[in-house]
Write a structure and sequence with these properties.
By secondary structure, the chain is mainly α. The chain has helices at about 1-35, 40-50, 55-75, 80-105, 110-135, 140-150, 160-180, 195-219. The chain has eight helices and no strands. The chain starts with a helix and ends with a helix.
Length: about 220
């Protein structure tokens, strides 16, 4: 009985960590969007899609991730968990709310303010990701794609497959943005320095939060 209680308490804590992590990550994406200096590769794709499709970002995020969820359910549902659905249904709407609130607070942010928002966004997304990843209750539908390609289909190593999927997202985001009437000079607002920073610096910062905060908290 004691073991079952501990397992239940552990699951509750991990679920709470997943929920908190997704909410924090969603807020960070809103901060990235107000910085307009580039977002992570998948959000680059979503930004291009958002520019082209005339529906709210929250609803669009759910639809896009539902398609990826179907892919994961067909080929390997092992990577789908509670956190996957928390991410699918909450992240887009919280991001939309955060971005709209920041637009009212900072209607025309200067370059220094945008750079500050970028720095804050990187720290916040790494903090949220540490909770989300340590909870280990499923991955996002986008993360599942690369994992299925390399682990289920045995088509290359994860780091290389992930680089390819990230590049595809960035290219698609830029193409969709231009197709929606965006100008080439504005592409760095969705594919820029923020995209590079998230690609190269998120890993070490997430691990820092893992070591000092999330793993001790789970124990």
């Amino acid at each position: 009985m004691k073991t079952d209680f501990l397992k239940t308490e552990n699951l509750k804590k991990r679920t709470a960590m997943s929920l908190f992590g997704v909410i924090v990550c969603a807020i960070s994406v809103g901060i990235f969007k107000i910085a307009a200096l580039g977002v992570d590769p998948f959000q680059s794709f979503m930004a291009g899609l958002d520019a082209l499709v005339p529906i709210g970002f929250g609803t669009l995020y759910v639809i896009a991730n539902a398609v990826l969820l179907l892919f994961a359910l067909v080929f390997d549902r092992h990577y789908i968990g509670i956190a996957t659905f928390i991410n699918l249904f909450l992240l887009g709407y919280i991001t939309q709310f955060t971005y709209e609130a920041l637009q009212k607070l900072l209607p025309n942010p200067s370059i220094p303010v945008r750079i500050l928002c970028l720095v804050i966004g990187v720290v916040v997304i790494c903090f949220g990701s540490a909770f989300y990843m340590t909870a280990d209750l499923g991955v996002s539908t986008y993360d599942a794609v690369a994992l299925i390609i390399c682990n289920t289909w045995k088509k290359g190593r994860f780091q290389y497959v992930r680089i390819i999927t990230d590049i595809v997202c960035v290219i698609l985001g830029a193409v969709l943005f231009i197709s929606a009437g965006g100008e080439v000079k504005d592409i760095p607002t969705i594919v820029g320095i923020g995209t590079i920073v998230t690609a190269f610096f998120m890993g070490p910062l997430i691990e820092l939060f893992n070591v000092h905060i999330t793993r001790p908290m789970l124990k």
